[in-house]
UniProtKB/TrEMBL annotation:
Keywords: Acyltransferase, Membrane, Transferase, Transmembrane, Transmembrane helix. Residues 1-36 are annotated as: Disordered. GO terms for cellular component: membrane. Residues 484-701 form the SGNH domain. InterPro entries: Acyl_transf_3_dom, Acyltransferase_3, SGNH. GO terms for biological process: lipopolysaccharide biosynthetic process. This is Acyltransferase. It comes from the Bacteria. PANTHER family: ACETYLTRANSFERASE (PTHR23028), ACYL_TRANSF_3 DOMAIN-CONTAINING PROTEIN (PTHR23028:SF53). The chain crosses the membrane at residues 83-100, 106-125, 146-165, 236-254, 294-315, 327-345, 354-370, 390-408, 420-441.
């Protein structure tokens, strides 16, 4: 109770001065500034406006993570906070442009979260201290700070995508626009994680996940802080509970559900709460800084910079992030913020004009850079050179600066708040509805004209005729999750049995086998995404057990069925001669010893650096003519080497037959892009998974049993031991 009384007394003492400071940040009537004991304070009359009483958190820490300070008046602004923003955004840019150079640069987002929690909580505390807290005013300020640049970027992406993206990709962009306008991108990205969902490098609005988490936090925290404000030590208790609960959840999810740990707002709130805790402490200690604290501030700022550099250099995406390692960028950011503008690093580096300048445009720079990188990849089929990446960075800076000066500042300072917020809200709603319409109408495929039209409208259902997920299992399925219908019944025809075993690429070969199987052979399909057909799997740690158990189950099926032919097919990515000798050849031998009469190994199929439909659409649009039937550009270069090594290994062992998919699809002119003149006959619907046309084309080139082929006798060899 004593603490509550003291707090009320302090609030009454601060109120007159605080009321003087509630003027329009851009008003010419803002209080002048005078120096007191090495600090700069707003001048005020009366004892109630002494330096200690006059210093509110709004005056010392006035900015938001997403925008520069609303108050440029001297004494009301910490330039080092904008400098810290610069470190955060430069880390993110470096990671996205040159990930090998700064593999941990993605932790810049964690830095942004801490800054946001610190500054926004400070503004809320100031409003609560003077009795002017209003959720309506708070969200109006958020709208004016966040919406202008985001509306421009979303509109620009939709405009560019209309001309440059296939309808299927444009529909996805529309969906992401709708969710981004609703600040729920993180939830959409969370739901989209899956084996065949588009890679992040093909999602122009992927980066809005962080903005979603931030705004979801501010749907909860202002109200919670308002409720806690009325209780003794309420804000400290509230933020402590939020931080502890969210951190524990993050650590728990990171052990078994890394995707949820990354995208869930509840497992990320602790990072914003860490900044909020700093703000609460700063608010309680306002005006109590002593000279002896300067050495401590210097040490804290140096430690913070050291830790943040270490985080960007040494933290990796694997194992999945965030986990306990997220404590490093959060702690480093907290140290830099807590050291104050007088800390050595803060005043010597972060307060430099060029650092502050980058920090001021960090929000529009963050919004612009990722769509530019993604559209560069679409324009160059995923092969963007380092000079082109530098050019993309330069363009992002130009657009960010233009957005800051010609969009954000005029709207924030040139329009009354009561009018600008509703207009901005309506504009964002319109953008979101536009994106939803684009998604609903499948990207408007009819709007394409000329030779590019059939490629722009191309769509493919990769589940079609592939018996997914009954016989083509998703990652993580049980070893014995295959349905009974995965083995064709005999029906008294005594047809030979062909067992197809492999990963998702084998799953897409099944429709081709089915096309040619009638009256010739039966099919047993055992395919599982991300699991190559072998008994010595070398996948990442958590996939090893699942793949190994599933493959052992296939061996039991072979022992039981004694198939006439076992067909092995996979992506075969990264296979080298040593792996073939130690993994592939023993697998072939084990199959023969356990009942397989013949084994056919199908080598790697052609693969493209970018989805083949996107490549052909771009070529047809730019050249205004149909793309070639065969081509060698934009192809992965390791396929021929793997094909040659695998052929040599299989022929040397002599226990299996080898079929080169490269020979089937490619010749001196290049590799087939489609099996007929029509765009519907593409061989591949993504980088390398076969379409039904491509699968049939390859299946017809396999030495499979004819309709009249007699079934061979089962070898009497004893089953081999799998070691």
């Amino acid at each position: 109770m004593r603490d509550a009384a003291v707090a009320r007394h302090r609030r009454r003492d601060r109120a007159p001065c605080a009321r003087q400071q509630q003027q329009d940040p851009g008003s010419p009537h803002a209080p002048p500034v005078r120096a007191v004991s090495g600090e700069r304070w707003p001048a005020a009359s009366g004892a109630a406006c002494s330096p200690a009483a006059a210093l509110s958190l709004r005056d010392r820490f006035p900015a938001s993570i997403v925008m520069p300070s609303a108050n440029r008046h001297a004494g009301h602004y910490r330039p080092d906070i904008d400098g810290l923003r610069a470190i955060a955004i430069l880390s993110v840019l470096a990671f996205h442009a040159f990930p090998a150079a700064l593999p941990g640069g993605f932790v810049g987002v964690d830095v942004f979260f801490v800054i946001s929690g610190f500054l926004i909580t400070g503004l809320l505390l100031d409003d609560l201290a003077v009795g002017r807290f209003s959720l309506v005013d708070f969200y109006a300020r958020r709208i004016r700070r966040i919406f202008p640049a985001l509306i421009v970027v979303l509109a620009a992406c939709l405009g560019y995508g209309w001309f440059a993206l296939r309808a299927e990709v444009y529909a996805l962009l529309g969906e992401h626009t709708a969710w981004g306008a609703g600040f729920a991108s993180n939830l959409l990205q969370w739901s989209e994680v899956g084996y065949f969902n588009p890679a992040g490098i093909r999602k122009p609005l992927l980066h809005l996940w962080s903005l979603g988490i931030e705004e979801q936090y501010y749907l909860v925290w202002p109200l919670l802080l308002w409720l806690a404000w009325r209780l003794p030590r309420g804000p400290q208790i509230a933020i402590g509970l939020v931080l502890a609960t969210s951190l524990v959840l993050c650590l728990y999810l990171s052990r078994g559900n890394a995707v949820a740990a990354f995208y869930s707002p509840y497992s990320r709130f602790w990072e914003l709460a860490a900044g909020a805790m700093l703000a609460i402490r700063a608010h309680r200690m306002a005006g109590t800084v002593a000279p002896r604290a300067i050495p401590l501030a210097n040490a804290a700022s140096l430690a913070g910079l050291t830790l943040i550099v270490a985080a960007t250099v040494y933290i990796r995406q694997n194992p999945p992030y965030p986990d306990w390692r997220a404590l490093l960028p959060v702690a480093s950011s907290a140290l830099l913020v807590a050291s104050g503008p007088g800390g050595f690093v803060n005043r010597a580096l972060l307060s430099r004009k060029w650092m502050v300048g980058i920090g001021l445009v960090s929000y529009p720079l963050y919004l612009w850079h990722w769509p530019i990188f993604v559209f560069q990849n679409f324009a160059h089929d995923g092969d963007v050179s380092w000079p082109q990446r530098l050019a993309g960075l330069a363009l992002a800076f130009v657009l960010a600066i233009a957005t800051f000066f010609f969009i954000e500042k005029p709207i924030r300072f040139g329009m009354p708040a009561r009018r600008s917020a509703p207009v901005l809200f309506a504009a964002m709603l319109a953008i979101g509805l536009c994106g939803a319409a684009i998604a609903h109408f499948d990207g408007f495929p009819a709007h394409f004209r000329g030779p590019a039209a059939p490629y722009g409208a191309y769509r493919f259902d990769y589940h079609a005729d592939a018996r997914s997920p009954q016989c083509w299992l998703p990652p993580g399925s049980r070893a014995d999750a295959y349905a009974p219908e995965c083995i064709d019944p005999d029906n008294g025809q005594h047809l030979p049995l062909v067992l197809l075993w492999g990963d998702s690429h084998a799953g897409r070969l099944y429709p081709g086998l089915r096309k040619i199987a009638d009256g010739r052979f039966r099919i047993a399909q055992f395919t599982r995404s991300s699991c190559a057909p072998n008994f010595w799997t070398f996948h990442p740690r958590r996939k090893v057990a699942v793949c190994a158990e599933g493959n052992i189950h296939v061996m039991r099926v072979v022992q039981e069925l004694h198939p006439d032919v076992v067909v092995l097919f996979a992506y075969w990515s990264g296979w080298k001669p040593r792996a073939m000798d130690r993994i592939l050849l023993p697998t072939v031998h084990a199959l023969r010893q356990n009942g397989a009469r013949r084994v056919i190994v199908v080598g790697p199929a052609p693969a493209w650096r970018w989805p083949l439909p996107n490549i052909l659409f771009r070529m047809a649009r730019e050249q205004d003519r149909a793309p070639p039937m065969r081509m060698s550009q934009s192809m992965e270069t390791d396929r021929a080497r793997i094909d040659a090594d695998m052929r040599a290994a299989i022929e040397r062992q002599g226990e299996a037959e080898y079929v080169s998919a490269m020979d089937a699809f490619c010749d001196a002119r290049g590799c087939l892009t489609r099996t007929g003149q029509d765009a519907s006959t593409l061989t591949t619907w993504d980088y390398g998974h076969l379409t039904t046309h491509g699968a049939e084309y390859l299946a017809r080139r396999l030495p499979l049993p004819p309709a009249t082929a007699p079934a061979a006798a089962t070898p009497d060899a004893a089953p081999a031991t799998m070691r």
